[in-house]
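Hey team,

Sharing the FAD dependent oxidoreductase domain-containing protein run so nobody has to redo it. Sequence (346 residues) first:
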Amino acid sequence: MNEDEGEGARHRHRHRHRQRQGTNESEDLKRAYDERRCAGDTWTRHVSWIGEMHAEQVTSIQDAVVAFTGPACSLWPYKLVFGLLARLVARHPPPRLNVQTYTTVTAITTMTDNKGDTWNVTSTSRGVMRARKLVFATIAYTAGLLPQFGGSIVPICGMASHITPAHVPIPVPAGNGGSKRQGKVVVGVEPGAVHPHLNNTYNISFGPERGVDYLNPRPDGGIVVGSGKWKDNKDRSAWYDNFDDSERFSPGVEAAYWHNYRQRTFSGWERSRAAADSVWVGIIGITPDGWPHVGRVPGGGDLIAGGANSDRHKQHKQQWMLAGFNGGGMALILTAAKAGGYNGQR
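Structure output:
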């Protein structure tokens, strides 16, 4: 990807994280942070603590109790993925590289040829493929192909929205210096409105029971927000163990969360007419301990002994996985994939 490519190709922001759980939890967080800093943890060199006195001023979040700030990167995944694909195609032209989308994988089996070599056989909607090595980058959908992960990687449905400043028709006044737009109507931000531009990425924590909102600002003043509010939805079946992203939450659930979101969250936006112009859902894979599964696929098929040297810990010889990132895959996938690639060479 060309690093000079247009806006959004690469932005640098400061990452804010605020807590609203109360003084006791804030003190626990501060104590844990100080302990890790005194222990010399590398990450603490780049992360600053902001106490209650300045948290709201620094973050622009109403009623912020505490905050962490640190370097973060915000980018367009679309440009990143297509930039990587362009490089891969240039380096490994067809038929060496075969990239397929909208291709459903229906089954994975193994076979041994007459030379004694083991192959992974992948049945898809476009036919059958075989490969010596197979990586399951199946995120929340892992259990559909690896049933043993039915209780270990659970798909959940979460919401996201794009919230834009109010753009309203504004007539151009007569006698406006001979402007060619004189007498016409243009679309712009509401007249007289001056609202703080959000130029940071955020994780906004509302406490363990209410989840975390994650936010990326847009150059035009809009924000893209992913919400953990589904935890408050009493209809657990609407989001838990749900891998269907073709249906949104009910209008009542959406309105309850996104209506006036910006006005009640950010200082300086209370009297704005900002509103969500788009709402959608996405599927996240969660794990009981909050950590992803990275490494060889355990159980079944063509196996080798695992660390405990028992049938219970046997692993596939030529199958690896990267899945169950609990919604935080973008921060982990680069090094996780590198680790998986290293394992694949052994």
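The two ends are 30 Å apart (CA to CA).

Ping me if you want the raw files.
A.
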